[in-house]
Design brief:
single chain, 61% helix, 176 residues, mainly alpha
């Protein structure tokens, strides 16, 4: 996966309850942790991942050591197996652009709930993400944000109060 998607995987892993020790903030491409680069470096030093240039971008791949230690770390990962499965299920349903939007929707939903002390409406979340992404190139379409709200809510990643915009997005998704 690319660096941006790797950031989002670590974000969702943290949100799912895996103790990554990472703190995320709002970045240009969604939730961002400067510490992910340090973690990737440690994983590279131990041969667990490799970072390769792919055109103008970088990709993070499973390293050679991972296969060697996979069976020995199974017990270490067992407490997080449900969270890992949840993250894999979510991310495997999305293309890279949707992962960024979904992570942004999740981040905003959690922040709104914390700041307001109540469950945000779907429109609250959509409006906040749209405002955050206003300068994003290419532009993020409102309907893509609405779709992410519906997907995350139906998969119980976020809790939002349904409203007209989310109901319409849900109906569009069901029509597909």
């Amino acid at each position: 996966v690319g660096r941006i998607i790797f950031q989002k995987l670590t974000y969702f892993a943290t949100a799912a309850g895996i103790s990554t020790g990472l703190h995320f903030e709002a970045g240009s491409y969604g939730p961002y942790s400067a510490d992910v680069k340090r973690v990737v470096g440690r994983l590279q030093n131990n041969g667990l991942v490799e970072e390769r240039r792919y055109g103008r971008a970088f990709e993070v791949r499973v390293g050679g050591t991972f296969t060697d230690i996979q069976s020995s770390i199974a017990d270490i990962l067992r407490p997080w197996s449900h969270a890992i499965e949840r993250v894999v299920d979510l991310v495997s349903r999305l293309d890279p652009g949707q992962v960024e939007i979904a992570a942004s929707v999740h981040y905003v939903s959690v922040a709104l709930r914390k700041n307001r002390g109540r469950t945000p409406t779907g429109t609250d979340v959509v409006d906040a993400v749209a405002k955050w992404k206003v300068r994003r190139k290419p532009a993020v379409r409102r309907e893509d944000i609405e779709r992410a709200v519906v997907q995350l809510a139906t998969q119980r990643w976020i809790d939002v109060e349904p409203d007209a915009s989310i109901s319409e997005a849900a109906e569009r998704l069901l029509a597909v």
